[in-house]
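Problem 12. The chain below contains 190 residues. Write out its predicted structure in C-alpha cell notation.
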Amino acid sequence: MLRLDEDETRHLHRLADQAAADTRIDADVPPAELARQLVRLSEPIPYPVYAADIHCDLIAWNAATTSYYAKFAQLPHDQQNMMLWLISSREAKARLPDWEGDVQDVVARWRRVSTSIADRDRLHAQVAEYKKVSPQFAAWWDSHDVREHHTRKRRFNHPELGTVTLRLIVVDSAEMAPGSFVVYHAPVIT
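Solution.
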C-alpha cells in the first residue's frame, strides 16, 4: 500500500493519464490575457492579487502586491518570477514570517502542476537553477511532496501595517490551465 494522501493520489492519477492533462480548452481569450483582466479588476482591492504562468513567471499584479510582497516591476524581467523571488530574496524572508512553511507549500504545489508543463527542458533548467540558488528548494523539490491548490492562511510583515494575516486563494480555471493562475488574498474572517 502506498499510503498516499488525497493530493498525492490525484497527482498519480494525473501522471497516469498525461494525455488528458495535456488537452486545452479552446477559449476566446488567451490564458495570460484572462489572468491580466482578472488582476486589473482587483486594482481597487487593498490586498495582493497577482497572476503567474505555469513557470511562476509573474504576468500581472495589483498595487497592493507591491506593498505586501515586492516591487516586482523594478526587477529585471527575467527575475519577475514568484518562485525565484521566494527562494532567493532576503525581502521574501523578511516579508513572510512563516517563510519556510509558505515556500515549502509553494514548491509542493508547483511540483504538482509541473506535470502539465509541456516545455520539459525549461522546467528542468528552472529546477536546476533553483537548486543552485537555494538548498532548501533542492531538499523540498527532492522530497517529491505534492499538494493541490488549497486555500490557506499566509502571514505578512507589512512595512506599514505590521503583521497581517490573509487567506491565500488560488484561482485555477480550465480556461487558464495549464497556462496561468491567479492568486487572491483576502482578509481572514473569524
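Discussion. The domain at 6-187 is CATH 3.30.450 (Beta-Lactamase). Students who got a different answer should revisit the alignment rule from Section 12.3.
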